[in-house]
Amino acid sequence: MVLPTFTIDAALVRSITHSPEVMGSLLVLLAAYAIRLFMPVRHKQMENSPVIGKATDREFHNALTEGYTKYPNSTFTIPTAHHPMVIVPPKFLDEIKALPETILSFQKQVSARFLGKYTGLGVNDTLVHSVKVDLTKNIVRILDELQDEVDYAVTKNIGDIPEWKAVPVYGTLLNLVALLSGRIFVGHPLSRNETWLQATLSYTIDGFVGAEKLWTYPKLFHPVMQYFIPEVRKVHSYLRNGAKLLEPIMKERQQAMRDNPNSKKPSDMIQWIVDNSEGTDGQDTDYVTKTQMLISVVAIHTTTMTTAQAVFDLVAHPE
Ligand code: HEM
């Protein structure tokens, strides 16, 4: 590797280091930077946006109701931990929806709120495109595959039995959703691999808990504390182990393309991620693994919660 070289004028350095004005300004800058790093993070609130509730509140249901009642046509702020949340009235929805990522970024806010630099949590363009375009386009074919996977998933998690059986709703649905989505995201056998399954299931919980724990330390310590918080360490291990499992599949596909560039590509989420990635990201197993974990984060618990709620509603209203 060739290291970059640069020349420096010794006399200039001496005159800078001997100048009290320059050194004084540098010290002030350093002190300001240190204070900024150690201070609890504060964010600019929108002007004239009244704050409802306290940052120490465990839940904000009442604050939301109060805010909506008092300010139906203007913004109000809920002082959620680390990142206060500004609630905007529906009349601004179209305007906000039209703003590009460069002005109002969902991706940046997710990464900032959940410390994506350390937890990996976030969303990227590759993921959004693969879901919005490719997954949507292939939905009919996917339904057939899901039907096949349902048989396996139900037999594994509930059993092939004619009688009624009591099962925990959330846990059982979680396992079903993980198997079904895994079938579309990586295909089997990998989708049924226990290490992979556990990683895709646990990443969400450990990622969010890890971010929450990291936030209890000043920002300056985050790069170090990531190695001491068990949940953040687990997230790193899911990525490492996941990459080991994905590596042979990636290698096989790369080899197939080298052998015959015109060969038909597989049509699954691994391939869409590879094809939709920028530059060399698509050849990078770590990047593809991370994007795979992210898709599990956005897909598995959300779908499970919605389905579990539907089951509870049916039980509460059997009519
Ligand atoms: C019932 C289950 C689901 C719920 C309730 C849900 C909810 C949400 C919500 C609230 C957002 C944020 C949207 C925004 O503020 O702009 C979101 C974003 C997203 N969701 Fe879901 N989601 C569900 C299932 C899924 C599934 C199954 C996938 C993937 C297969 C998925 C992929 C995504 C992606 C990629 C984004 C980011 C979109 C973007 O940045 O444009 N979601 N979801």
UniProtKB/TrEMBL annotation:
Annotated coiled-coil positions are none
Instruction: Name any one Pfam family assigned in the record.
Output: p450
Q: Which UniProt keywords apply?
A: Iron, Metal-binding, Monooxygenase, Oxidoreductase
Keyword Ion transport belongs to the record: no
What's the superkingdom here? Answer: Eukaryota
The cofactors named for this UniProt entry are: heme
Q: Which family does it belong to?
A: Belongs to the cytochrome P450 family.
- Protein's recorded name: Cytochrome P450
What organism is the protein native to? Cryomyces antarcticus
**Taxonomic lineage of the native organism:** Eukaryota, Fungi, Dikarya, Ascomycota, Pezizomycotina
